[in-house]
Write a structure and sequence with these properties.
alpha/beta, Rossmann fold, 2 domains, three-stranded parallel β-sheet, 41% helix, 16% strand, binds ligand LMY7XDAE, methionine biosynthesis, methylenetetrahydrofolate dehydrogenase (NADP+) activity, oxidoreductase
């Protein structure tokens, strides 16, 4: 019987963070303290947890973090003024604005104001364009983490049919571009795709980021598929589950990411790595 490979994001994230410790130590020997500014607007409870985890992970590898916690009522102008200040502060190497933002703030306008050379999230239009031109400078952390996880497990995507479920700016669109850059044949599906499950059944590599608990079932995949689950949802019992029904799909898959412990930890590791890269430069 074939054993399914578990794509363990926690383990790889740990390995990357160990390597980063050495790189930050070398920077500090040169008198450079790599520093990340983290901006959180409002009190969204999930965002508060992610930001806390980012601070903790950054401190562990020797990065300095500058914390900006702004009230829910913050205006677009106030946030833009803070970003303008951080853009010209030479002691800050990376700027991150935690998403989502409150409704009075246009997140596209905010990400476009971050200096592209400090844009650790890879959300600035220039960085998005560079990614789509196959000349990436700074990559969105979750899709970058997925590619690293696949590479770590020697999963070559070239010539494979990769099906992406979801078209968000944070995951769906950039992972489609990264897979295409790596010579996969890419199909992007979303909530309006009429024959979505017909397409997922054709996938050699299936990336699911649609935000619906256990949406992908055993009948939606072919045997031997590689499944990457980007979802994070609470099921009826309050348990954290992905967009893929792990219990059903795992026995059929060649490899699969768990939730939690798959893609999530990779997001934070790649954020730290990008900050260190900017500081090294
Ligand atoms: N500016 C950004 N905002 C957001 C991003 C982003 O990359 N940049 N991504 C998400 C949230 N996110 C990071 O910010 C994130 C989400 C989840 C995890 C994670 O480690 N998840 C764990 C489970 C955590 C839990 O128990 O709740 C896992 O999957 O194992 C890390 C980062 C939206 N906003």
């Amino acid at each position: 019987m074939m054993m399914t490979e578990i794509l363990d994001g926690r383990a790889l994230s740990h390995k990357i963070r160990q390597q980063l410790k050495q790189r930050t130590a070398r920077l500090r020997e040169r008198g450079i303290v790599p520093a990340l500014a983290v901006i959180l607007v409002g009190t969204d409870s999930a965002s508060q947890i992610y930001v806390r985890n980012k601070h903790r992970a950054a401190a562990e590898v020797g990065l300095a973090t500058h914390d900006f916690k702004l009230p829910e009522t913050t205006t677009e102008e106030e946030l833009l003024a803070l970003i303008a200040k951080l853009n010209v502060d030479p002691s800050i190497h990376g700027i991150l604005v935690q998403l989502p933002l409150p409704p009075q703030i246009d997140s596209a306008k905010i990400t476009a104001e971050i200096d592209p050379s400090k844009d650790v999230d890879g959300f600035h239009p220039l960085n998005v364009g560079q990614l789509f031109l196959n000349n990436p400078q700074s990559l969105p952390c979750t899709p970058h983490g997925i590619m690293r996880l696949l590479a770590e497990h020697q999963i070559d995507v070239a010539g494979k049919h990769a099906v992406v479920v979801g078209r968000s700016n944070i995951v769906g669109r950039p992972i489609a571009a990264l897979l295409l850059n790596a010579d996969a044949t890419v199909t992007v599906t979303h909530s309006k795709t009429a024959n979505l499950r017909e397409l997922t059944r054709q996938a050699d590599i299936l990336i699911v980021a649609i935000g619906r608990a256990e949406f992908i079932k055993a009948a939606d995949v072919k045997p031997g598929v590689v499944v990457v689950d980007v979802g994070m949802n609470r099921n009826a019992a309050g348990k954290l589950v992905g967009d893929v029904d792990f219990t059903e799909v795992e026995p059929i898959a060649e490899a699969i990411t768990p939730v939690p412990g798959g893609v999530g930890p990779m997001t934070i590791a790649l954020l730290l790595e990008q900050t260190v890269k900017f500081a090294e430069r």
